[in-house]
Amino acid sequence: MNLKEQFIEFDSEIKLKYGNRKEFCKKFSLNYHDINNLFGRIIREEVRPRVDIVEMVSKPLGYNLTFVKTKD
Q1: Which of 5, 33, 40, 58 is deepest in the core (most CB within 10 A)?
Q2: CB-based burial of residue 57 (10 Å sphere; 0-12 exposed, 13-18 middle, 19+ buried)?
Q3: What pTM value is reported for the model?
Q4: Are residues 38 and 49 in contact, defined by beta-carbon separation less than 8 angstroms?
Q5: How far apart are CA 27 and CA 31, in angstroms?
């Protein structure tokens, strides 16, 4: 599963559990504006975020992701 597909899955899970990204961010004290922009850019495949940013979103959802470094 690539990062775009993973974030689409995260987005669906956030909507099911919290209703929307704004409520998710409130619950976990995350900056809504930054997280919302991050989702948009990843889903449009315009950015590769830092691992710590991905973990900031994935850990509250119960995911423990492992990243493998590859050559582009």
Answers
A1: 58
A2: buried
A3: 0.73
A4: yes
A5: 11
